[in-house]
């Protein structure tokens, strides 16, 4: 219970330092979907068509999501109400991840206990309870699929190890049911789908086939596959997708090996060996040829772009820029391994080595898990989340082995075998690792508090006197949209902010974080990269009322739209290569600039104009310095806006909202109207422009 409490309390910094609020981007969609579920039946939820997203296409939401997270939260909400605790659904969603992290620690204890012993289990549970690599996606407010997925991952593996060790149908069935739960909650279930078959395949190659493995895998595969097909978003993928073919192939291979085991008992060893080798070669050839043929015929779905990007890190950037544009799809930096796991990262290979020394069947599973996730985490930073649990397990195995030896003082203090040197060495080694544990706790607490407990919608900053202040521009802007625009108003913004606009502002968006339609996203990118008149036409065609851009040049917010602009251009160029060209946005020297040396195409784009409009005025009309790009901007660089009216700029200039002007009743172009009014001096400021005195704290 102490470890459970530590796991929960370590994730509450975000609530203590800020407030009970949903974080990031995807969690806002999950929160919105959960609210829909508690107000409607589960049947209505699965058939939910959301016409307030991806306008004018809409989204068949119920059939394109993993419902496990929302269903679990709704069940908790209904249960608490039944027993007289009417807790607000927002608080349930905010505290969801911390609560399940405690369950993860318990499951990790029992899994590691099966690998080594209870002492290693306690260490592994303690590690995963506070390790930053897991906390990064499970702090209070991080209401995302991973909040429950890692729990289900560890529970599934725990029952799988028990099932394959004992050949128990009961344990294997539990593994299948929790696998089904995992399928309902996270697309990363494919990792389990391939890791368990890989484990069986390795054991077969090692000559370790037993009836226990046969029972365990068949039970898990049949129940798990049939159950997973009940999730609408998954459907027939388990039998029609290359991502799932390994599980199906190992299932067939297991039947052949079982048959071979029976034939072996009826034939002389020499004849059986010949029959077995020939049979395996033929079956392997037929299986591979059949897979390619069925894929070519379209009966089996090919591997996705995300799959190819795991093996070729340049694939996404060349072929699918929308995948490469996501920061969590980038390769991980080496320091991140230490930052997220501290001293566990160098205990990790030691633990794997110790498992190699023993190499039981369950050890093969952990080794396979370690090798695969080490590679995948190296090419995609998001997968650091799946590597962290096995780091905790193997590090616990290594450290418990050290303590088994060096905390045993019985021989060192035995009067008959007194050895002061041995006693001293044991004290030094054990004391050193206990000190490492102290540093680990200190590091985890510091990282959690400073790096992983700030909601993306509220940013910490530093005031001139050095005290902490909060930058709340996002919520300020979304609240303005909710209170000052029509309920059916359509908002165009880059897809990153779609879920937040839908969840907080409750307004219709053209694109959002689901990113299912690359062409529709490219339309928004094309509009942002186009000159005013052309952008106006594109947006008018899609009934857009408002355009929202994020600008961080004033306070140094590096995640603004100008820093993402090249990805908008690349995605649009992939659809309209003749109209949008990335090189046009660079200087003749090949530099990406926003100052006076910026290209003409860059300066004419509405992204540039909307970001920098009136920005130099903050500096008395002189040259303003963009703190993100460290370049000077003048009024002559920015120019004017004729087709859009600025209707809102947040306190720290991070969020800027523009409204499309209505057509002139006299038939003049909006540029002509703007030129006429400027000539008569009728354009006046509608608000007082003030420069905030805050600096974003990095």
TrEMBL record:
It is found in: Endoplasmic reticulum membrane. Its EC number is 2.4.99.18. It is a multi-pass membrane protein. GO terms for cellular component: oligosaccharyltransferase complex. InterPro entries: Oligo_trans_STT3, STT3-PglB_core, STT3_N. Residues 490-540 form the STT3/PglB/AglB core domain. Pfam families: STT3, STT3-PglB_core. GO terms for biological process: post-translational protein modification; protein N-linked glycosylation via asparagine. GO terms for molecular function: dolichyl-diphosphooligosaccharide-protein glycotransferase activity; metal ion binding. Its cofactor is Mn(2+); Mg(2+). It is an enzyme of class 2 (transferase). Belongs to the STT3 family. This is Dolichyl-diphosphooligosaccharide--protein glycosyltransferase subunit STT3. It comes from Naumovozyma dairenensis (strain ATCC 10597 / BCRC 20456 / CBS 421 / NBRC 0211 / NRRL Y-12639). The gene is NDAI0D03640.
